[in-house]
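Interim report to the steering committee. The following record documents the input for Glutamate-1-semialdehyde 2,1-aminomutase (456 residues).
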Amino acid sequence: MIPPSDPDGPTPQAGTPAYPDDAPASAAAMARARAVTPGGVNSPVRAFGSVGGTPRFMRSARGAWLEDLDGRRYVDLVCSWGPMILGHAHPDVLAAVTQAAARGFSFGTPSENEVALAEEIVARVDPVEQVRLVSSGTEATMSALRLARGFTGRSVVVKFAGCYHGHVDALLASAGSGLATFALPDSPGVPPSSAGETLVLPYNDVPALEAAFAERGDQIAAVITEAAAGNMGIVPPDPGFTQALLRVTRAHGALLISDEVMTGFRASAGGWFGLEGPYAEGAPDLFTFGKVMGGGFPAAAFGGRADVMAHLAPEGPVYQAGTLSGNPVATAAGLATLRGCTPELYDRVGTAARAIADGVAQAFAAAGVPHRIQWAGTMFSVFFRDGQVRDYDDARAQDTAAFGRFFHGMLRRGVHLPPSCFETWFVSGAHDDEAVDHVLAALPGAVEDMLTPPSD
Ligand SMILES: *Cc1c(COP(=O)(O)O)cnc(C)c1O
């Protein structure tokens, strides 16, 4: 039996190692989980594989705080990997979800919330004229690829090393995120025929792009890119890189798919496009969205030019479908979340992110620890190395062992970081002074722990 949790319970004392490294209730749950689930988790990075130790099982979350099965409280810098931009269990989203659920869980027919959510997305990202709702970011990128191939009648896809687009077969080559963490070069189970239609190029490398198109330009259906990479840590496109992608794809009749699953409605109100666009060279033909637009529920989308989207069934021949697509509860959560994504919200998120990043930079500098912080709008990540990070090779040249010690130093002090140095640190509008000050107070001790070699 899980005891009832108290989301407003006592906070750990700031700055002190409040919690021991063993977490008995989480360890017991993990043992049960391992028996019935591979590795005990339903998404690999959650297993703490690269930092070691017991993943904390959470029983509740409110605002900026998580509470685990042992009743320990942590400031959350994962935010469910991005979606919880308003903070956990935000009252407006909770009310919308409760009301929607009371009216029924899934209709298998069109419903009005789907239209409202699509309208909200179309209104925020100018080149997006139409969207189709799906249930995960993976489904969005998979469907966008199929559509691009159907539209162009070509089959080759270009992706960039270190960019993660979900676990789509064709895109599981040199992907970041969990694959970076576990250093899997490729996944078994992806047939060579599928990966063979994928060209992997270095990110931010225009000559490599031009060379690939000079050789195979008439076979390339699409280039897919993270609008600003966030799954190898934050690596924004160099000035002019997105424009080069537009220029080269246009010249060869290929489509450009901008994956904004992470950056969409997160980097800014209009995602990365809202910060960097519009472009004189044109606009990406297709976009993918997820994370924030689902408000913590399974909702994602792909969309773009109406003439391309017209190739989708039932209007066109490219098949795509989903039993739970546009689910009324998920769309209610997404809609309430996007409506809460006001200019003031982005100000609050940006201010909290800046304060935490500045604190990290100060604590690391004071201890003489090499580090580099990179930004995409309100999003940032911390590299455990010096110097600019422009691509996947740069990102991989980090001190991952030091990160593991730092991670556990923060965890002991009641701060839950993403458990890998290749991940973005996420904050929310609920990261108020109390939460930010708690993170800042934890930093010096965690840096000290990082510099102390393990004693066993
Ligand atoms: C998270 C992510 C995905 C995959 O989304 P899921 O909902 O986990 O399938 C795709 N692309 C990017 C850029 C992402 O960050």
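The pocket of pyridoxal-5'-phosphate is lined by residues 136-138, 141, 164-166, 226, 230-231, 259, 261-262, 290, 300 (CB under 6 Å). The committee is asked to note this result when reviewing the revised timeline.
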